[in-house]
Amino acid sequence: MRFKQRIGRWLVPVLGGLAFVYLLVPIAYIFVYSFNDAGRTNLTWQGFTFSNWLNPCGAPNICDALGNSLSIAFVATIIATVLGTAIALGLARYKFRFRKLADILIILPLATPEVVLGASLLAQFLNLGWELGYWTVVISHVTFCMAFVVVTVRARVSALDGRLEEAAGDLYASPRTTFWKVTFPLLLPGVVAAALLSFAMSFDDFIIANFNSGTFDTFPKFIYVAATRGIPAQANVIGSGIFLIALVIVVTGTVLSYRRQKALAAR
Amino acid sequence: MQTTEDAKGGRMSTEGTRPEAAADQGGRAAVVPGAVGGADLVIENVSKRFAAFTAVDDLSLTIPSGSFFALLGPSGCGKSTTLRIVAGLEQPSEGTLRIGDEDVTDLPSHRRPVNTVFQSYALFPHMSVLDNVAFGLKQRKVADAVARAKEALELVELGHLANRRPAQLSGGQQQRVALARAVVNRPQVLLLDEPLGALDMKLRRQMQVELKQIQIELGLTFVHVTHDQEEAMTMADVVAVMNHGRIEQMGAPRELYELPKTAFVANFLGKSNLMHGKVVGRDGDYLQVEAAGGLQRVRADRAVAETGDVVLGVRPEKMRIFTAGEETVPAGHNRLDGTIVDASFTGVSTEYLVEVPGVGTVGTFTQNMGQVTGKAGEPAVMCWDPDFTFGLAGDDDVAAGAAERDA
Amino acid sequence: MRAPASRRPEPAENLSAAEQKAEKARGRIGVGLIVPGFVFLLLFFAAPVFVLLAMSLYAKPPGAETGVFVPAFEVSNYVVALSEYWVPLLRSFLFAGIATVLALIIGYTMAYLVAVRLRQHKLLAAILLVILIAPFFSSFVLRTQAWKQILSDEGFVVEALRFVAILPEDGRLTATSIAVVAGLTYNFLPFMTLPIYASLERLDTRLLEAAGDLFASPMTAFRKVTLPLSMPGVFAGTLLTFIPASGDYINATILGNNRDTAMIGQVIDSRFFKIVDYPMAAALSTVLMVVILILVMAYIRKFGTKELF
Ligand SMILES: Nc1ncnc2c1ncn2[C@@H]1O[C@H](COP(=O)(O)OP(=O)(O)O)[C@@H](O)[C@H]1O
Ligand SMILES: [Mg+2]
């Protein structure tokens, strides 16, 4: 009995811990091989060097592709967040005809695999005779990020306590003031989370961009194409760098909020 | 002894509108024979430490089978921790626990013949009320689990809400479901952790009466945790007053109230007027104590110490108050002289705060018999029968427990 | 002016003029909020899907150059699509299904560890949560490529597996179905874990104590309380994993071979870009989308919760 209990107690931490290791294995691999003195192909270990980190733009076109991806992710995130947040508010708060239909239209992109989304947008762009490039990628990314924004923000809107808005109205706030002073600040964490998610998804997307970018290069596309010849070690540097920056930001934020909570609890 | 019929009548009148509950004799009657009474719960030298903090400190208690036992103490004194140890949700750092003859110290909570009514109710939100109540029975593979759960719901008069979800019930109704869910298992000990804390005053009084009646009907051992002294006294057969992880005093409510053994109990369980004094002599059964600038008397068998420094106490309602010069103090009564600092008329009574030199502020009140005794600023005289005086240890803190009571 | 009650018996409709006006004004704000996004979706989601449907019926005129098609109603495109590519289509759903189940097991364990077991250890839980989200921030393609290297014939994983004889002497991991499924599982794991984490984090652990108090063993408490209460997360996670996994072709391309691991996404991609057979690619896309929609609908029917969206 005792033995069984002890197994029960340790099973989840051990299996969960292994899963976390599994999650980190390729990331660790990418990090280690960013120090590989690789030359042209980064397939086998050739020796340790810092030179990749000192010169991350060393591989031809890599930083152009990175810049393109960052720019697209930024623009697409802003558009998707604004449009998506407005839709979330409109759907959660107001009643009008065709709302059920609107619901479905907004959720449908979530149920559409990226190949299909990419292929249909390509068909549309071909049909319209638009030239593929920066803006076609932005548009396609907005389409596929917006549904995520709507879902994320809407959960937050539904969780909002409507009485707070009534209280604000009771304290002489106009609807506009109420929105900006009460509703929006309460929604902000959800909006920020949605924006971060959009940015990450846009930045990391290969399939949709591959369909709609023509000869325009994005970072995932660059790596995918390079993979056939051997990915330059600079790609590992950039991949690790982004990961480390994100890690530092998130950890700092967590530690700060943890400290603040502790300080509040101590009071 | 109250009959079942009376009990039901009482609930009916407070609850109002459910004649069918009274009509359901069969369901009610079927519940009672299942009750086999409880078993003694013995807690021996139990301590619980969280890191360096001792939440329960060498606690020993015997709770007799079939009794309604109240654990009373201020917030943070270790009541919940004690209950959680009994329930098996917390392991004691030291000590043992027995139910009847069985040592249950190492038994995990799901094997203990104990059930809890949680302060938060902890109703399963994804199950219907009926499924909540049937949960424990189903775990133990009781054959007619659903039928019994229905009976238990009838017992708390919620039979008509069996198919609702907990979120669709009011606070009072949720509380009843939590009670039914625990009671239906006929545990040897039923633990209630401030079950009425979230209810408003009116509902609370009503539930107190109902809980007590259910306990009498079923004959189970109830251990009821509360920080409300009135609740403890009205409901329990035995009250244990707890402070800083220890039991300060234990006994029947009247016994505790009339003869507190520590300043904490005197102040926390009702109000007391306490004054420092010194034993100066003896007069038959009484000790003579110099206090408040005069000689007071206390029965030796009502005093913790018979020599040296003592603290004398008396309950406010045992005192009488007169305007100075009009007093009629019976021979042999204790007497205090002071100045009224506040007199507040509440209708039934008038409450006085009197500043007594060498003692501080003394509280008392008079029943409204049409008299007008005094106003703020006027001198007053108070007296009481020395048989009501109690004597505490001289080094006791006269303010202990007063702030916690009012918190 | 109040409408006569006899004609309009519904209380909701039975509003005063002022109430009706206010209701209308609110409705206008609502419509105003959703119109811009809506127009965008109509233009760049609904219309493209429509164009795709139309294109799937285009025909190639006899003797035309590669990539030239004319509008038609060529239903036989679908017959060809299904008869020629039913294998990669089925395989896609099979791989995605297996990957979803694996991700569910792994992701639930991680989410449970962080959200329930480590609830008291706030800082450790926060750090593990970062690691959960971390893969989002390092490139998908790069990670998949890393797996290829790790699982390569010279890599230590294969050598270790060969050493303990789990893998035969000449056995390999790259270019196998196992590698593709493992890659899919890995890459969509955060989409599974995060929604489950979100629902487990809301779980009131006092309910588990209550279950224990009511004679449920820890295992039973998990089955009867934890699992049902985390179902919205499981539901969202499985959908968010299965849908993109079934259309994915990066894993199949990088970690698989061209023969027996091909997934439908690869076929669509090569029809579009290598063979330039737009109608066939469009027909395959349509089939994929329709099958997914049917599966998702059935799934929502069976397990759906209102809380999801
Ligand atoms: N798990 C725990 N970890 C640390 N301290 C605890 C824990 N549980 C209770 N305590 C502390 O033990 C003391 C007694 O708590 P509790 O038994 O809940 O008091 P009560 O129910 O009488 O209000 C409190 O000071 C509380 O902060
Ligand atoms: Mg408590």
TrEMBL record, chain A:
Chain ranges of the ABC transmembrane type-1 domain: 66-255
Record keywords: Cell membrane, Membrane, Transmembrane, Transmembrane helix, Transport
Compartment(s) of residence: Cell membrane
UniProt topology in membrane: Multi-pass membrane protein
Entry's transmembrane regions: 12-35, 70-92, 104-126, 132-153, 182-203, 237-258
A Pfam family: BPD_transp_1
Chief localisation class: membrane
Domain of life per record: Bacteria
Family affiliation: Belongs to the binding-protein-dependent transport system permease family. CysTW subfamily.
PANTHER family noted in UniProt: PUTRESCINE TRANSPORT SYSTEM PERMEASE PROTEIN POTI
Protein name: ABC transporter permease
Native source organism of the sequence: Zhihengliuella salsuginis
UniProtKB/TrEMBL annotation, chain C:
Span of domain ABC transmembrane type-1: 89-299
Keyword list, A-Z: Cell membrane, Membrane, Transmembrane, Transmembrane helix, Transport
Regions that span the bilayer: 31-59, 93-116, 123-142, 178-200, 221-243, 280-300
Membrane association type: Multi-pass membrane protein
UniProt keyword rRNA-binding, yes or no: no
Source superkingdom: Bacteria
Subcellular location(s) of the protein: Cell membrane
Keyword Transmembrane helix: yes
Xref: InterPro entries: MetI-like (IPR000515), MetI-like_sf (IPR035906)
Family (UniProt): Belongs to the binding-protein-dependent transport system permease family. CysTW subfamily.
The protein, known as: ABC transporter permease
Organism: Zhihengliuella salsuginis
